[in-house]
Amino acid sequence: MVMITYVEPNGGRQEIDVPEGWSLMQGAMSNGVDGMEAECGGSCACATCHCYIDEAALALIPPAADNEAAMLENVVAERRPTSRLACQVKATAALEGILVELPAAQS
Predict the structure, then answer these.
(1) How high is the pLDDT of residue 72?
(2) Which domain holds residue 26?
(3) Number of structural domains, the chain?
(4) Digit-coded pLDDT (tens) for 39-61
(5) What is the pTM of this model?
(6) What average pLDDT does this structure show over 65-83?
């Protein structure tokens, strides 16, 4: 399990143990994190699992693949250098304790 802290749009925080190998989206959806829509269920086809990854953790995850980068062009909220789709980021031991912030709007 990997402890991930999700910061909801209202500023609330949920610390969740996410199984290694699960996506950050799966961890949020399985635990009722507010602000995660994930309309496509994790197939990188809707951009409604947009999140902001803790800047320090960006070096610990693979860069966005071309399909994710293309979908990030469609996010509703501000796109930042730390923007990722939560369905494309897997929980690993290296991510223990990171913050994942959810924007105010997904769709």
Answers:
(1) 97
(2) 2-101
(3) 1
(4) 999 999 999 999 999 999 999 99
(5) 0.96
(6) 96
Residue 97 domain-assigned?
Answer: yes
Q: How far apart are the first and last CA of the chain?
A: 30
How far apart are the C-alpha atoms of 48 and 58, rounded to whole Å?
Answer: 20
CATH of the domain at 55: 3.10.20.30
Average pLDDT, the chain: 97
47 Cβ contact partners less than 8 Å away, ≥ 6 residues apart: 71, 72, 74, 75, 76, 85, 106
| CA pair distance 41, 45, nearest whole angstrom | 9
106 located within any domain? no
In a domain, 107, yes or no: no
